[in-house]
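Record pair follows.
FIRST:
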Amino acid sequence: MIETDALVIGAGPVGLFQVFELGLLGIHAQVVDALPHAGGQCVELYADKPIYDVPGLPVCSGRELVERLEQQIRPFAPGLHLGQEVSALQPLPDGRWQAETAAGKRFVAKTVFIAAGVGAFQPKRLRLEGAEPLERRQIHHHPDTLAASGQRVLVLGGEEAAVAAAVALADAGEAASVTLLHRRDVFKAPAAMLAHLQALRDAGRVQVEVGQPLALRLTDGRLQGLDILDLSAAHRAVAADQLLVRLGLSPRLGPLADWGLALERKLVVVDTARFETSLSGVYAVGDINHYAGKRKLLVSGFHEATLAAFAAAERVFPGQPVHLQYTTTSPKLHERLGVAAPAHD
């Protein structure tokens, strides 16, 4: 059981900035995200694509923005619990909230912040008989869980995530072989990445198979490869020891729908002074919330996180004044940030 001032559900840009604003107010946070890394859709969907509307940054990639936010929250040492989905949230008699993940990890928090973007991102799974028992052993949805050394790796997918995975595996040189399977010999990825893929194909370091997966090939419960239907409507076998399924992500509201929150069109209704939900002490920021005039922009989420943090401070520190301080001049904020106070002439 982990006790904390604040539990932030979602480690995308708005969730990370929520940690920063809480930290400035002296509120420590734990962060949970269903993805195995921080960054949310910013990293999953446009990691290397340019973002032009972040104040003070004329242009940055999704990955760069997340790296900067991770650096920004480092002084506050939040607990990060990645690859876990919050499955239950219930009130306690003392006014705090108890949350539990699907993996069984429990939190007791004075405040809860839902920063889940458009919902918990779940990888699109391989819908073949016998696949589920092999997940995280021989069927993977993220490269982090794949041990490729000496293995025949088959990557499924046709978009940037699949291409990037195949290229990275080939460049690492540890896998016995790397094969990329897609329904067409046409891939969606940045031009430079596609050129790199073609060079690897020409060198024989990546094989490409075109077809649709039909069935797993199993021997004594172990994966040996896939049966596919190729473009000529013939059935063929593709050998593989490990499958890396990169078919994209699909957001879903998930367990959040059962927490008793007021919802409108599958979004969490909040007030615009505190960004508090219909549940006292539970706040919602970013794309997951709804109010009149809502705009799904990063800058809107950052604004919402700031006001939600100040509202939460009243709950975390009852009876104490919550002062507005500036990072430029406040010695207390300098101390919390671990920076030297500016010298004055």
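SECOND:
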Amino acid sequence: MKAIVIDGPNQIELRDVEKPVCGPGDVLIKSAKAGLCRTDLELLNGEVPDEWVSYPLIPGHEWGGTVAEVGTDVTELAVGDRVVSEGMIPCNRCKRCKEGATNLCENYDQLGFTRPGGCGEYVVAPRHVVQRLPRDVSFESAVLVEPAAVVLHVISRVMPLPGEAVGVVGIGTLGSIAVQILRLFGPRALIAYGIRTEELDFARKMGATHTVNVAEQDAEETTHKILGEGVDVIVETAGSPQAVRTALDTVRGGGRVGVLGIAGESARLEIPSDYFVAKDAAVVGAFSYTTSIWSRVLGLVNNGLVNFDPIVTHRFATRDFSKAYELMDNRGTEAVAKIVLEHDQSISA
């Protein structure tokens, strides 16, 4: 089968590899589409810590496809079922998994990082991370279930209430998803903060009521002009120290800040030591997602409460992966949210 393979930092190609073998408790899935995200670029550049990655690798932790084969112990799925799979593969045995914190599994394993992912034509995944996808839900929405789970995880930790003013810092894929999900809580105002006009225009299309260009406007001052105070809840998705600073500056006293963006181990943010006490603010981080959260997102998608299809802004055939990676690395003046790689579906199972 064909697969995009990253052999090591700055070494990538599309080549023939062996088709994976389906074990007794596994599902062999013909990948239809796979999302490309900033982390995939970091995998290529060798910027992901060694403990999270195993080269050579086939990327693709955001993907969906059709069941091609099921293991002898699998009875709930059948060949031809449309499915989507979690990227994280919890062991369900360790202390953290038993507590429900599967995102902190002590036996870390993840498709696209330590196991071959959705950028191969076929993927083997354990049955317990695979869920059926309704016929009326597109594979493009399926691709976005994984990043949406990351977003819902942090939102569930800051617990927005109906009628509160909420904000989102960073309007890429995660920020666009955050806008959609936060709308479900009935906010009186939903403010998007970004540095590019085209991204902020996109945020309004997703449902933001106000936008603030932090490259041209003072975020704190502009927020107070809009609301008369800071936001009640704000979610940072951009993954930079300045984005976290924006979130801290624009939340009201006693408000809640959720941080999910990853800036890298070398990034540093200096905060006055009395900030948290003086502002009486709750600041929480959220890493990845739990199986429970992932299932909740799939429920939102399956019931039509969110529509992620418009967040896919660019599509490339797998053979044109280099163009996709180039766009991820150099966006120019385009509004770029989710980039999707599409496999050739004429290939037989």
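COMMENT: The chain has two domains: 2-144+308-342, 148-285.
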